[in-house]
């Protein structure tokens, strides 16, 4: 266990994307509270589907909150799914504070539809913002750390925290685009973790559950505590884990996936083989597979729909 400190991120510079509202805002504030200087990125569009004109006001509001609390922060307005915008975001952090140490990828949109009704644009736009947005910022942050490491002849300090979702883990019938993007983010995380470890960079992902503008429909039926207690779905439950993963204390965590919500953190293991069937021949026949796999699945309980209410222990209104 590392020595406790109130400001483990002193002297470090962080970028948080999608940081004007919800999870990103809570994460940016937490990183600043722990000592980091923060670039608050957001496109500032009013619609959770990415619609509406961009605005600098939301990102600047979060940055001003951090400065008012005694921290350091600047706003960056732009769409991280645009390659050059992501380059500019990383360059802004380096130009302002001389280096980048932490990248928290959080920006995203929703365009929900059942797979048989989804349009090409609804698919492309969600994949673009979530998955390509994660790649773009990671690409330029990774290049920055690689160049610094080569120049120093030693490992440097780098942390990436990506945002996946339980929609990829447990399925989400009306979100094939979102679930696919979040699954892709886990693949990006594990690949980047392997590629960047030798430079001193760790890359991890979280699956947060929180009441935000993006999830207002999902959690609309769960009551908010009326006695002043912290909402189990408040983004503030998620932010401390992001702060920890961004800190020196988390140096041994790399390529990990963690679920976090309501005072709970769960470490997700990589997929395990549940059963294996072999044939003495060069290849299976249809009949052999039917004789092995059909009874195997007949004996297994049917897949259960993910029950958020049971896991959260919340009551519907």
Characteristics:
9 helices; alpha/beta; 317 residues; Rossmann fold; disordered C terminus; 8-stranded mixed sheet; globular
Report on the architecture of this protein:
Belongs to the short-chain dehydrogenases/reductases (SDR) family. One of its GO terms (molecular function) is oxidoreductase activity. This is Short-chain type dehydrogenase/reductase. Keywords: Oxidoreductase. By secondary structure, the protein is α/β, with parallel strands linked by helices. It has a single domain (13-268), classed as NAD(P)-binding Rossmann-like Domain (Rossmann fold, 3-Layer(aba) Sandwich). Helices cover 39% and strands 13% of the residues. The protein contains 9 helices and 8 strands. Strands 3-2-1-4-5-6-7-8 form an 8-stranded mixed beta sheet, sandwiched between helices. A hairpin with a 2-residue loop joins strand 7 (257-261) and strand 8. It is globular and about 70 Å long. The relative contact order is 0.12. Residues 304-317 have low confidence and may be disordered.
Task: Map the helices and strands.
Blueprint: E1 13-16, H1 22-33, E2 37-42, H2 57-68, E3 73-77, H3 83-97, E4 102-104, H4 120-152, E5 158-163, H5 166-170, H6 176-196, E6 201-208, H7 239-245, E7 257-261, E8 264-268, H8 286-299, H9 308-312
Parallel strand pairs: 1-2, 1-4, 2-3, 4-5, 5-6, 6-7
Antiparallel strand pairs: 7-8
Q: Brief overview, please?
A:
This protein has 317 residues and is α/β, with parallel strands linked by helices. The chain has helices at residues 22-33, 57-68, 83-97, 120-152, 166-170, 176-196, 239-245, 286-299, 308-312, and strands spanning 13-16, 37-42, 73-77, 102-104, 158-163, 201-208, 257-261, 264-268. The model is unreliable at 304-317 (pLDDT under 50).
